Amino acid sequence: xxxxxxxxxxxxxxxxxxxxxxxxxxxxxxxxxxxxxxxxxxxxxxxxxxxxxxxxxxxxxxxxxxxxxxxxxxxxxxxxxxxxxxxxxxxxxxxxxxxxxxxxxxxxxxxxxxxxxxxxxxxxxxxxxxxxxxxxxxxxxxxxxxxxxxxxxxxxxxxxxxxxxxxxxxxxxxxxxxxxxxxxxxxxxxxxxxxxxxxxxxxxxxxxxxxxxxxxxxxxxxxxxxxxxxxxxxxxxxxxxxxxxxxxxxxxxxxxxxxxxxxxxxxxxxxxxxxxxxxxxxxxxxxxxxxxxxxxxxxxxxxxxxxxxxxxxxxxxxxxxxxxxxxxxxxxx
Length: 333
Hints:
Order of helices and strands: HEEHHHHHHHHHHHHH
Helix content: 55-70%
Number of helices: 14
Largest sheet: 2 strands, antiparallel
Strand order of the largest sheet: 1-2
Distance between the termini: 76 Å
Structural class: mainly alpha
Radius of gyration: 33 Å
Shape: globular
């Protein structure tokens, strides 16, 4: 038998399998083109399969892109935050439970911090240094300012480290990251309301009667909350890349306290410096709360207006900046 016949016999009885150049396997009978013209086939997309070999549905993927500064982007981010309101509530409640877990005094710590500072400041600044208090008992004068300041400082200090301290959660699952600093602000607001009971007791002890101007305290507290949220967004976003912010936070808050009228009234600040001094948003907030609650007089609408304007302008800017950092926070945290 000739060599050609032998080859034909082998082809008809034992077909060979030939490897295609791009990884697909074809029978020799499928190769109908002449030698030298190989067939190329595109690789087929693979699908995830379970242990039984059955196809599984593809896992949804969320792509986070840095947003642009626009009203539409801001509205979209707010709508997304509203959709996750259940998570915001759950984490806020969890924050309050964890804060006082295995604590003997529990929520009483929300009251002890401003009360102890009030006692210390009363001894030092009314008995030793003798700072003026504008005719108000110094204990009441100091506590009315320490109450909002404690809310601001504790919320800001905790919220600054919120993303870094929850890196395992941030890198594993997607949710609006602004929920984390917001939960600390909400927890601080609850402590503020609890500690306000002591302020009511001091007002009754010193026979101070509330006037109609006390209703101004409600929008003033709203301005305080807005400014705290805005500052928390900015500092928590910066803290992701530069951990110096968290280290410097205690010192920064101490310096900030002494440039805010807490242990002294606004009237002791020289007139030529008051315009610059009132650029500190906490000045108008604390002085406004003290005037309407303790002194029974209308607030200084100029300083309070400056604080409100700064807070309202800063909040959307801080929110957009936070959302831009959020796009890469899981990569650098």
